């Protein structure tokens, strides 16, 4: 009997040992670099990050079925598809992007092994993102890395690390973690506050002539020196349209990094240029996210010098003047500075799109059009970060939301900065993100009236942005359109851009010498930051007409735009995306990388959109047609 008892005892010990070994293996799983990104030009390391500085760590898990989500996105956005306009619900989107149970368990185990309890975690609505607040020293152990304080040439400071690691068995489950190696800054692309003495001369008589009136001719509505709501409404054909669906249609704008919409300034602007809408200045909704700013008191001296709220005022004033009485929502995300010396303060991690996306995707009802005037050079962010954020925009598109982004204000790149960030410093054009994401609609800027040309302003080095992504391949909806344009480009440009990348902008709108009210005074601004809310407003009015006709909204615009919608845009054939010390990409007939398809004309857009919606079979009618077809086959008809 003894041998048997001994054998059993040894087996028990083996089982216990095996169990402990498995646990130890999980805890001690070897680390390997998951992601690395070279520190971009203009950033300098100052020293190690404070060990007790708190950061909000965002862990992005692999989405279980993104390819299926993308299929749905393109089907419901393609006017020739039977499912056109049948957008997904929030629950349907979450089901497609939620991580696997295995991924969640493994990540939870890893965090627990590092002393991070499940109770301290926060989740996105689909649980594809986990957020936890930790001191730098804990994050460094968790990711086997070292954080440093970096300073930009403009004085901005960030806490970042060029590379980070994970246990090997987690590489397949975690796609991205931030803040780590992303040096992206969601900054307005130069909506530059101009010195009026440079080239801007505007008298009170000019102002009086440009106040809203019934239906002036275009040459009376638009002054060559300045752009007002009356000019925009006349130029783009919305002046005679009456909003019909304000109870169901909505539009939104986004503010980042301390920007807000000063209601007093907005009220002055509307009273001057759209008097019947003046009350809207105090009625639009503001949703503050992650300590975003909604300051309504006068700016202090430092804020005045920085031009605080010039961007926010521009967006709100443009949208309200164009779309009133359509309800407007402003999302103000992360107003705190990216880094302050207070080590115990949880600061904005300066990854605003992740924060905003998690918030907005958790909402059941979202405005059908969202305008964002912020971007940065694509190469300032690691590929994994760009892809994860871009996937978030795809989720919005699948739910029927039109997401518009500014294409940037440096043409093909700011002179002196046109070099790759791979250590080789190769001369290259610099695409911008998120405009380069294929799931958003990128908006360029124009100037002049008849005809419009690609916008530029030599006095402040503004030039409408355009180019081709180095991260995202050309989407299928661009395949019939972009290659012919590439054949027209001079050979000396061929080594400066990615010919197989997603091309942008998609469309354009006025973006030169916009009149705004800032700090109580008339202020002229340039930028695609002006063009984006203008284009978004026109799209919102198209949605208004569709809803009034009982049709679905446009949703993700690009498949529709590149198939039929382009017919309603006025081609811009003159000018170029000047940058990098050269002419850049030229405008031409049809789509081009300087102006996209050109500028919108509402009467034509209205007609094309209504006709597109008529292509769609209702689900019941489609089912009935299939049933009849099957019956006909069965009886041999």
Walk me through what this model shows.
Mean pLDDT is 87; it is low at 5-26, 189-198, 335-349 and 617-634. A hairpin with a 2-residue loop joins strand 28 (576-579) and strand 29 (582-586). This protein folds into two domains: 31-63 and 98-178, no CATH class; 216-611, 3-Layer(aba) Sandwich (Rossmann fold). The termini are far apart. It has 637 residues and is α+β, with helices and mostly antiparallel strands. 51% of the residues are buried. The protein is globular. Strands 11, 12, 13, 14, 16, 18, 19 and 24 form an eight-stranded mixed sheet that branches.
* Strand content range: 15-25%
Write down the CATH class of the largest domain. Answer: Alpha Beta
State the helix count.
19
Rg calculated over all Cα atoms: 26 Å
CATH architecture grouping of the largest domain: 3-Layer(aba) Sandwich
Query: What is the overall silhouette?
Result: globular
Going by CATH, the homologous superfamily of the largest domain would be: Peptidase S8/S53 domain
Main sheet overview: 8 strands, mixed
GO biological process, one term: proteolysis
Domain Peptidase S53: 226-612
Protein name: tripeptidyl-peptidase II
GO molecular function, one term: tripeptidyl-peptidase activity
Short description:
One of its GO terms (molecular function) is serine-type endopeptidase activity. The chain has 19 helices and 30 strands. It is of the alpha+beta class and about 625 residues long.
């Amino acid at each position: 009997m003894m041998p048997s008892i001994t054998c059993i005892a040894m087996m028990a010990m083996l089982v216990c040992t095996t169990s402990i070994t498995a646990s130890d293996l999980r805890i001690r799983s070897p680390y390997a670099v998951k992601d690395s990104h070279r520190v971009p030009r203009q950033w300098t390391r100052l020293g190690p990050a404070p060990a007790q500085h708190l950061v909000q760590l965002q862990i992005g898990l692999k989405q279980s079925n993104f390819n299926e989500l993308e299929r749905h996105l393109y089907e419901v956005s393609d006017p020739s598809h039977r499912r056109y306009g049948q957008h997904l619900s929030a629950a349907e989107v979450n089901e497609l992007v939620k991580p696997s149970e295995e991924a969640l368990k493994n990540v939870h185990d890893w965090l627990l092994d590092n002393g991070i309890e499940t109770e301290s975690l926060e989740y996105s609505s689909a649980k594809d993102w986990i957020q936890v607040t930790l001191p730098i020293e804990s994050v460094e152990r968790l990711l086997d890395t070292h954080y440093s304080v970096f300073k930009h040439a403009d004085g901005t400071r960030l806490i970042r690390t060029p590379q980070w690691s994970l246990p090997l068995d987690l590489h397949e489950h975690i796609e991205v973690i931030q803040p780590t190696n992303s040096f992206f800054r969601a900054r307005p692309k130069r909506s530059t506050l101009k010195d009026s003495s440079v080239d801007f001369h505007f008298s009170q008589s000019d102002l009086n002539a440009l106040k809203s009136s019934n239906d002036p001719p275009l040459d009376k509505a638009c002054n060559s020196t300045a752009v007002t709501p009356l000019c925009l409404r006349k130029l783009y054909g919305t002046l005679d349209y009456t909003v019909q669906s304000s109870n169901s249609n909505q539009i939104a704008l986004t503010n980042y990094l301390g920007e807000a919409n000063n209601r007093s300034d907005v009220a002055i602007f509307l009273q001057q240029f759209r008097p019947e809408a003046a009350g809207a200045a105090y009625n639009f909704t503001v949703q503050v996210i992650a300590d975003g700013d909604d300051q309504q008191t006068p700016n202090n001296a430092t804020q005045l010098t920085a031009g605080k709220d010039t961007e926010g005022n521009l967006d709100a004033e443009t949208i309200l003047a164009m779309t009133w009485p359509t309800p407007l929502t402003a999302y103000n995300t992360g107003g705190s500075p990216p880094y302050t010396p207070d080590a115990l303060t949880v600061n904005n991690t300066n990854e605003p799109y992740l924060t905003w996306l998690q918030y907005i995707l958790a909402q059941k009802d979202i405005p059908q059009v969202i305008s964002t005037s912020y971007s940065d050079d694509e190469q300032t962010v690691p590929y994994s970060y760009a892809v994860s954020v871009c996937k978030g925009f795809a989720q919005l598109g699948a739910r029927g939301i039109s997401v518009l982004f500014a294409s940037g204000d440096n043409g093909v790149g700011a002179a002196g900065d046109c070099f790759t960030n791979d250590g080789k410093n190769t001369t290259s054009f610099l695409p911008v993100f998120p405009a380069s994401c294929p799931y958003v609609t990128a908006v360029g800027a124009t100037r002049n009236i008849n005809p419009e040309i690609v916008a530029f302003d030599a006095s402040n080095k503004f030039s409408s942005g355009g180019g081709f992504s180095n991260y995202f391949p050309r989407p299928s909806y661009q395949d019939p359109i972009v290659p012919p344009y590439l054949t027209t480009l001079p050979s000396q440009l061929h080594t400066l851009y990615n010919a197989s990348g997603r091309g942008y902008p998609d469309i354009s709108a006025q973006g030169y010498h916009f009149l705004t009210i800032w700090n109580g005074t008339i202020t002229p601004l340039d930028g695609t930051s002006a063009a984006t809310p203008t284009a978004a407003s026109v799209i919102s009015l198209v949605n208004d007409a569709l809803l009034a006709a009982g049709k679905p909204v446009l949703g993700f615009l690009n498949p529709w735009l590149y198939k039929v919608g382009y017919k309603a845009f006025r081609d811009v054939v003159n000018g170029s995306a000047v940058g990098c010390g050269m002419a850049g990409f030229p405008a031409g007939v049809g789509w081009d990388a300087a102006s996209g398809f050109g500028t919108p004309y509402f009467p034509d857009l209205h007609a094309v959109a209504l006709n597109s919606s008529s292509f769609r079979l209702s689900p019941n009618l489609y089912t009935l047609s299939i049933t009849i077809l099957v019956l006909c086959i069965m009886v041999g008809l």
